[in-house]
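To: structure desk
From: M.T.
Subject: fold request, one chain
Message: Could you run this one when you get a chance? Sequence is below, nothing fancy, just the single chain.
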Amino acid sequence: MKDVINGRCGWCGTDELYVKYHDEEWGQLVTDDKILFEFLVLESAQAGLSWITILRKREGYRKAFCDFDVERVAQMTDEDVQRL
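Reply: Done. C-alpha cells follow.
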C-alpha cells in the first residue's frame, strides 16, 4: 500500500470510518481524561484485532462503558460485569 493516498496515510485506505478517524482523531493531542479513558479501553480491546474492527465496535464499547465515564464504570457491580 502506498504511504500517502489523497493526502492521507495509506493505512486508512478508503473505508469511510477509517478516513474519518484519520482526519479527525489520529495524531491529535489528547488531554481530556474521558477521551484518554476511551482510548485506553479501545486500545486494550484491540489486542489481536485490527483497529478498524475496534472502530466499528466503538459505539458498543461506548454503551458498555457508560459513555466512557470512569466514575460510572468504577461503580459497576459484579452483575454489570457479568452482563457485559
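Reply (cont.): The chain is about 55% helix and 5% strand. Let me know if you need anything else for the meeting.
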